[in-house]
Amino acid sequence: MSNQRFCDGIRRRDMLRFGAAGAFGMGITLPSLLEHEARLKANGVETKDTSLIIVFLQGGLSTIDTWDMKPEAPAEFRGDFSPISTVLPGVQISEHLPKISKVHDKFSLVRSFGHANSNHGQADHFMLTGYPHGPGFNGGLKPNNQKPCVGAVIGKELGPRGGVPPYVCLPRMHNSAGSSYLGSSATPFVVGADPNAPDFKVPDLAPPVAVQSRRLNDRRALLKTINRYEQSTVIQANQGARAMRTFQEKAFELMTSDATKAAFDINSEPDAVRERYGRNMLGQSCLMARRLIEAGVRCAFVNHIDWDTHYNNFHVLKNELLPKLDAAMSSLLTDLDERGMLDSTMVLVTGEFGRTPRINKDAGRDHWGPSCAIAMAGGGVQGGRVIGASNERAERPATTPYGPADLMATIYHGMGIDPEREFLTPEGRPVPIVPGTGRVISELF
């Protein structure tokens, strides 16, 4: 994984656990997922069919150089790039997104979007929860959630679908991707590896595809031996422990099933498909997200770093970042559409904020929360729309402003989750999943 350019700058070998960092609240175990699924079914909870893919460009995408260009602004604002036409009459985006320009009918833009926070950790939390940070917030913690991430809410509300976890983060977990007071049943599975790596495998989540069933069966035999010892102690009186052993057995069955292994076997994709997405971390993570959604995951969170372009903004965007985004996003939307999945899969492409309209002395752009256009597609969101506008220099919304709380309300609406739903904290305090100010961006539907 590449080094971050941001300006603010016990390994779990237990064979009985599946999932990243489950012991520390950073991921969840497969047995606990299965237990959660069984509990939902027992309580008669019906799950939904809509899924969500978040492509989070961590560091802050320069939306004035991509989605919301201002070619008539003075040079110190408009920058080096020129706009090009898209398949939508009269709609233009950056010249360095030519593939995306051809699929603009599959996604929509919200250009009157922004918020009041221009600090990485705090803005991350705001964009991924709908809530601004509160007192004592520490953005450097993993997880740092004072409120649950949208993926955690989806996992909690809708639960697992089939034998895969409801919420997955890849290639690494974002600091604000946690579940907060929703607990371990809503925390994400973390892939914890680069899908573009030649030796890609999912540590602590599933055995490598090449692991033989005999080796797993050996582990199953050892687990049974341990369980027999437990049954001769006080644990045999613990109903929860016996129930967990049932889910551990089912976990072994899933890990040896062809369907489960196939969900993470990105090497089974045709070379042409992998090349189309781009042979890099972002491209292959987006391809993996499609595979996970296809396998039944409800929310796949792709976290891609290095978008903090304080220096040489235009060189870095042109030569490194935008070609990767262009291939990955255009391929993802086309792939979902051709597979008949776009209607049931919402896609969000965003960073935590935009970049300053005025170019700095280092040919870069700094943090800018007040104006940061977002892209959305699928799951009921109509493609080919441009919602709202920023002012003539992309400094702030010029039409009805939308922000993180509205984004969360919009996602939950598309997922079939009541935006007015409340959860109880461990202390019994009711907390809405969306702040009272949040409203659905109805123009998207």
Structure description:
Helices cover 32% and strands 11% of the residues. With 445 residues, it is α/β, with parallel strands linked by helices. It has a single domain, classed as Alkaline Phosphatase, subunit A, CATH 3.40.720.10. The strands form four sheets. An eight-stranded mixed beta sheet has the order 6-5-7-1-8-11-4-12, with helices on both faces. A two-stranded antiparallel ribbon has the order 2-3. Strand 13 (422-424) and strand 14 form a beta hairpin. Helix 4 (120-129) runs parallel beside helix 12. The radius of gyration is 22 Å and the shape is globular. The chain starts with 29 loop residues before the first helix and ends in a 13-residue tail after the last strand.
Give a short overview.
With 445 residues, the chain is of the alpha/beta class.
Descriptors:
two-stranded antiparallel ribbon; single chain; 445 residues; Alkaline Phosphatase, subunit A; globular; alpha/beta; 8-stranded mixed β-sheet
